[in-house]
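Quick look at the format.
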Amino acid sequence: MSAYNALVLKRAPGGMAAEFGPVGDDMLGEGDVTVAVTHSTINYKDGMILTGRYPGKLPLPLVPGIDFAGTVVSSANHDLAVGDDVILNGWGCGERRPGGYAERARVPGEWLVKRPAAFTNAETMAIGTAGYTAMLSVLALEDHGVTPDKGPVLVTGAAGGVGSVAVVLLSKLGYRVIASTGRPQESDYLRALGASELIARQELAEPARALATERWAGAIDVAGSHTLANALSMTQYGGCVAATGLAQGMDLTTSVAPFILRGITLAGIDSVMAPKEKRVRAWERLAADLDAKKLAELTVTRPLSDVLTLAPEIVAGKVRGRVVLEFK
């Protein structure tokens, strides 16, 4: 195949450097399906990788980008044909193998999900790993009996990617949403997405009591650390907390009290290696339950070349909602 353009992270004095430009097939991953990539996005993990804050060792040179959407141009997979529009989220792409910040990607076909007809390629990347993770979290709450009649649901980091989509999904499904944010200027934005109540991030950011007053039936947490401990301590009897991230930290200083005295479930949400059937279920529910108008309202579109500017902003919590990266 001919050369194609990609963002490549390379070793450089003092660390690494990023270069946009043409590359060859040697930068493609292994797999039985090749995709012409049309759109990608930026997630918190992408920001960590691009700013050198990723805690693992990167196999440089590397094409970053944990998500992509595009059209199959070559396939030896019996489930996928040339011309199929597909989505990839995670599977180590952009971390341990070439990812989505390139005009072409090659992966095992079983990693790909066919694009639901309800979405365009751009809309699937407006959702991206952040929105797909939000849906996995909602499914976890449902599977553990947290229904709208049981009480409100807390969403931490509510103005970010996972949080914004979670607020939209939960509100459409009939939940009363309590949105936690460290950005009070985003109050109108969060209420427009469907939040019924807002609380300051600082309320949850300090060390938690073993048990506190019950305030919500469930929670979707992106922060970890003290925030997750507080979310657990304030979850009502029989509730569930879906843990999706570590924006505040990887630590969790709490006690067994919420689990053995209130029967709370802590559900870990892994979006990277989730089996295909779980991914398909999540995308089918996104197609059915995500408000397309609100998705558009929380999304901006930028060229792929802007990703290096966006990376430190998303790590610093300055990116609101979702960003679609467009390939032109």
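Next, a different chain entirely:
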Amino acid sequence: MNSWRSWVVFAGAVIVYLTAVTQRTTFGIVGVEATDRFGVSAATLSSVAVVQVATYAALQIPVGVLVDRLGPRVLLIGGATIMALGQVLLAFADDIGLAIAARVLVGTGDAFTFVSVLRLLPNWFSGRILPQLAQWVGMIGATGQLVAAIPFAFLLHAVGWNVAFLIAAGVSLFAVLVGVTVIRTGTRPPMTEEITTSSTWSRLRASVARPGTQLGFWSHLLGGTAPQTMGVLWGYPFLTAALGYDVPTAAAVFSLLVVGAVLPAPLIGYAVASFPFRRGDLVLGMAALVYGALVAVLVWPGQPPLALICVLFFLIGAGAPSSLIGMDYARTLNPSHSVGTASGFVNVGGFLGGFVSMFLIGVVLDIVDSVRVATGQASDLYAWESFRLALLAPVVIALVAVVGVVVTRRRARTVMTRDEGIEITPLWVALFRTRRNGPGGRR
């Protein structure tokens, strides 16, 4: 455990995950070009990304079960292979049906990756470093969005659609090579609970029924919806078509999603490891920052200034590491033999919120443009005023997720008090007691 070989395996797993994030994001970079290439509406275009993310989300629970049975190495290699096939198909797709099939393959391969990486970590590491490593995985993997935002965007304009996606497929094949040569499954940690002889379905239901797993799901949904929505599909068209930024400016602003994911990640990992009973407060606090900035952009009179857009994209990026707190709930509040299953369910959260949000944004953009045309105005599908309404979708989803976090956190705390005798007071009460008592005792 925690040896030099552990770090070599960790590096290999992170490379595979970074590649998966790159493949996941590439279609969002070509959103405007895809509208012209396939001759489709905004809602139809969003359905391509929705199908990709829906495939990812739908496979999370089966993947969680598979990773507990087959081990993470098999799934990591298989996932990278499937993503390469998907990108090759997209390179030659000339109609929307083939594009959807290609993104289903990418979503399938992507689904195998993240949960497998998290399931691999306890086989090679132990102690307080584990929650911090989960943040490092997310942080380094987020640079895959940067690869898509800058090199792939310029590559697309330099060599065209076909060659750009073939190069992306080659990157996935490199990840396959890394998985084969570097990654090993390692030794599973000791069982923290006896494995029952019940069916897989029964064990799945038991895992999902745990309040800690449900809390992880809602935490992941709350933190992950905005990064998925803007990172996978609508962020780049929002910058280039709605706000009118040129490619270098849009790529620079889009890259702030990565900067926002990278810079806070070590701090969030440290906070989770040091104050595990305050993870829910951290999730809610980060969400307040993200959606406060989004609402500020939406209510700004006229087009918002570039500085505010930069702040928004940085904070949306910061939502990604906060969503990983949900995965830490799955790891710590489930027996070790079902961590993969619980992690798969939790990982559905942010992607479910993301694909619902992406689809609703496309629908609203089409409706607003139809009304515009019906009133005698020229069609402007990606107008800023249309996005001003469409981007209310992730705000509504976030409000639902906040309710879910608050309710399931209360249930999880009740179970901890009953089973372990641990009573967690509300944050404001803890802060009041700290201020009243001080470091030297009661005053």
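The first helix runs from residue 4 to 29.

See the schema section for token definitions.
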